[in-house]
Fold this protein.
Amino acid sequence: MKGRLLIEGGLVVTDASSAPRHADILVEDGLVQALTSPGASGVDAAVPRLDATDRLVMPGLVNGHTHAHGGLGRGAVEDVALEGFLAASPAINGHRGLDDLALSATLTGVELLRKGCTALFDMTTQFPLPTVEGLHAVAGAYARLGIRAVVSPMLADRTLYQAYPELLASLPEPLRAGAAALKGASPADNLAAVDAAARDWPFDPSRVRLGIAPTIPLHCSDEFMRGCARLSETWNLPMQTHLAESKMQAVFGEQRYGKSLVAHLADIGLLGPRLSTAHAIWIGDEDIEILAKADVTAIHNPLSNLRLGSGIAPVRRMLERGLRVGVGSDGANTSDTQNLFEATRLAAFLSRVMSADEDRWIDAAEALHMATEGSAHALGWGDRLGRIAPGREADLVLLDLSQPIYVPLRHAVRQVVHGENGAAIDRVLVGGEVVVAGGKVLTVDEAALRREAQAAADRLDALNAEGRNLAQAMRPWVSAFCCGVGKSPFHLHGGRQVAG
């Protein structure tokens, strides 16, 4: 946005821990210029106004972890655990062209904007490996929508069955031969694609930037992970990995490395302030302290963690040990929604089944902080997003205070976190530009988008039928193997207690 805008008369929540106050917000060139008492801005009458009377104005939510390719995969995943989902992933995401990549990103971005999210970390997938053109297709979709994003290609040089040869050995023939024939892309090809994209990134990096995502430590060789870390440092790319999302990952991490996954990542030099770790469920106190000392951000994904039966992250123990925490929705193919209000509420409420001690529960302010400033750090924008203050981006959500969940209004932050689902959204602004109004995203034809999405899904389902049949045949064997691992005793380093 170029020029000035005055947002008048709103009840403003500047950040999760501050009491709301009535204020006018002056926006200039996309940034918050000033907050003043109502009517005291002194700006010229010619400056455009936005009436925020009876509106709660809050920072835009920041999605710390999702997979936009999940937009076209919605409804495709059965009731399976994580490894069962990973086994089916090629069949869900295969045969996608550049238009499909852009379409899925657009679907995801539209849902996020309509639910008050103004920025996201997208771990995006392109089979068999990322391409510059594919990354541009995804980034271009976000740029056209007007949402901020980190476009971070999900990389691996090992398949699920190369990561777990024991799983491969458990399969009967001919399934074993089919699984063994699957190959990951080479480290050199993966890294070259990201390096090429970083060298000539045509998008405004303050709006859509490139990241890098070695997907799961066990799916990546150590040298490949080091290569990802080098690219992250060279090009200042936010980096993200799925860490200890399942018990299977944690158990086999101990077996492979003789130490926890976190300790191993520390040994190979992956930890640092540019890294965020999605999920981080099966980690102990020592792991948390290592991550905190390295200034890593952990991203809590409660929706998919429950959907896949992965577990509950020890969020209170993370916060107690100084580990920064954000919130993610995860992909729509594993969480069924991109509603970060729901994820934030669940982040608060899940803490209450981890401990009977009310003082250890995640309160509303902590949950909202995680979903704004906490996640913003994972995107590399911790100093620009997540709060309403002079010099910060004018990424704002206006909520209608006449909606039932705000009547009567007693505690704005508590009522947002505990009750909001996006229904009260009046407007959403990104960089001072109104991108959502009247329940619609203004930068896209949503009716046409729905038609395109259904046609693409039907076409892709037909193209991926053979792979889907193979995944269905694999399912009972993968499930049995994972159940066996799940029943095995496992000690978390640091002696994580039951009270989360």
Residues 4-58+401-441 form a domain with the Urease, subunit C; domain 1 fold (CATH 2.30.40.10). The chain is about 40% helix and 20% strand. Residues 292 and 323 are 4 Å apart (CA to CA).
